[in-house]
Recover the amino acids of this structure.
């Protein structure tokens, strides 16, 4: 029996490492534009709520297109949809660099959302399918770490390229995503889709997953996580930094970078903790920290306090994602296809990304940033309450592995 295939000591499959490499390249490019996008939109003489709309439309198209993306994966195959999605994002984002009107940016970000849905659903499906049950948290954490490392390096690199203005970073991001597509095309093994269909696993329907209290809880926590950390943080934090500090663009870039750094640092351990201590406690502790640190972000009155709170918020967020993705994988399992379930999980997060920037941007316009960020603490509390009544999914998979006869593990 080989060490690689041993259920006691499994290793991360090669295909996931390919996606990890592509994820780093994608995140590196995204890190370039994240601190600049809200300020670039405001330069079209629109409100902060309108700037939030550009963030939300990206998530809205992801939400709307998620079910269709799952169907396309079933019809065409994971690898092809992954590549088409990456090339769509590359083209749409690069085109933002030459946009002349606000509506053009909105339309292009919406198109990028379609591509993002394609490669996200494909990637999640592959991770669920390829990850050994005992290291699902580790696989998810490794994939997420690649994004976070790119988000650490990207904003710092973007700050060093600030002399280029707002537009060049979007072109550079488009090129970076195109390079990621080349990496996947060259290194991801080609699989005949007809062969995939012939060996297709039975589907898990959303109705069945919805009956599991853990799945309902993870939908709620993912909504809160994406509202705060993928929506509000990206859209409103740069505007807050620009309105409070002298060099707002640099302050926003460093705040986003340290958030990603704190997240990446914790991800080195949180995947293993989720596989050891359980998914539920990691999600609840992470949401509690997120509620506290994002809730007080509006009180930051110096760059150093902004950076400190951002780092702590990032560390808290790092506890959540690997555990959440492991929960979804636990619910679906390796013996069934969970396209509908994965799409629903993504749609819950996208809904948070849609609502968060618009509502919090509106509250910032009317009541100020302190009230706006405090609402994030309330949203995180919703996820904490949901998980307080949910079951732990790790125990069931440990029991399954113990029941498998040793002969079934042999090559």
């Amino acid at each position: 029996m080989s060490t690689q295939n041993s259920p006691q000591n499994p290793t991360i499959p090669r295909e996931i490492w390919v996606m990890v490499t592509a994820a780093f390249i994608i995140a590196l490019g995204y890190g370039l534009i994240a601190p600049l996008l809200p300020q670039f939109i405001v330069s079209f003489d629109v409100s902060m709520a309108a700037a939030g709309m550009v963030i939300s439309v990206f998530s809205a198209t992801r939400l709307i297109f998620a079910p269709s993306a799952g169907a396309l994966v079933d019809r065409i195959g994971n690898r092809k949809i992954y590549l088409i999605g990456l090339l769509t994002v590359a083209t749409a984002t690069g085109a933002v660099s030459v946009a002349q009107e606000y509506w053009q940016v909105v339309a292009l970000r919406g198109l990028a959302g379609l591509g993002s849905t394609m490669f996200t659903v494909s990637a999640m499906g592959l991770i669920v399918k390829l990850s050994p049950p005992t290291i699902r948290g580790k696989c998810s954490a490794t994939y997420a770490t690649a994004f976070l490392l790119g988000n650490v390096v990207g904003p710092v690199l973007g700050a060093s390229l600030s002399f280029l203005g707002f537009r060049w970073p979007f072109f550079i991001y488009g090129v970076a995503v195109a390079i990621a597509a080349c990496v996947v095309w060259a290194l991801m093994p080609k699989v005949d889709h007809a062969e995939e269909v012939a060996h297709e696993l039975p589907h898990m329907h959303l109705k069945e997953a919805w009956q599991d209290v853990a799945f309902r809880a993870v939908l709620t926590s993912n909504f809160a996580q994406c509202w705060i950390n993928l929506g509000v943080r990206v859209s409103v934090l740069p505007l807050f930094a620009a309105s409070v500090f002298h060099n707002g663009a640099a302050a926003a870039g460093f705040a986003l970078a340290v958030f990603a750094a704190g997240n990446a640092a914790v991800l080195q351990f949180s995947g293993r903790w989720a596989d050891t201590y359980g998914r539920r406690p990691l999600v609840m502790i992470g949401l509690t920290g997120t509620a506290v640190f994002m809730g007080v972000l509006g009180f930051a009155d110096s760059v150093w306090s902004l950076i400190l709170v951002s780092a702590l918020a990032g560390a808290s967020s790092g506890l959540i994602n690997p555990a959440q993705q492991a929960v979804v994988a636990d619910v679906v399992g390796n013996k069934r296809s969970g396209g509908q379930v994965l799409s629903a999980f993504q749609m819950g997060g996208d809904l948070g990304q849609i609502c968060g920037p618009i509502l919090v941007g509106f509250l910032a316009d009317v009541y100020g940033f302190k009230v706006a960020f405090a609402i994030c603490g309330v949203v995180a509390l919703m996820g904490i309450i949901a998980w307080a009544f949910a079951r732990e999914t790790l125990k069931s998979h440990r029991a399954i592995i113990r029941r498998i006869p040793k002969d079934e593990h042999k090559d």
